[in-house]
Amino acid sequence: MYEIRFHGRGGQGAVLASKILAKALAEEGKFVKAIPSFGFERRGAPVAAFLRYDEREIRQMTNIYNPNCIVCLDPTLTRAVDIFAGMQEGGIWVQATQKPLEKLFVPEKVTTVGLCDGFRIAMEIMGRPITNSIMLAAFAKTTGLVSLDALNHGMASVAFRDAALEKNIEAAQRAYQETQVYHIAHREPETRKETR
Fold this sequence. Notes:
The chain is α/β, with parallel strands linked by helices.
């Protein structure tokens, strides 16, 4: 079973992103469960959503505590929330940010990072800082676990219509092209110097 945790702020569409991805993965023949978690239901408050998928039926309905992948829709959220809590070894991190990799703290458990300037793309194409479809495309490019076509179908069937759909598909296409993917070699844990 593969588990994904989405982190965002209220109004950015983290819960909707998990639903779109669930539809896309189901279209590609996977068994999927998407589980929203709201906490404070107000714009700007930290929000998490959860998704698990497998090749066979899933019965587990709990939140995800040990994700294989973290998708973070907001560049400032890492200062407010420990998005890496419980992450499995060999994890994948997909982050909305304009910063280069060398300016980010990457935990030792992370072996693949996908970076996309989601806010810039959202503002240029949609005029609003809503990054869900953009970061789903970044997830697709980083992981290879779902196709962009399946995401587009997911957006059409779950979320968007007409002009909004066209803009989200355009934004996703651009995000897929612009996402930078980094594979990080195994790093030895830092050893603490003994003090006497």
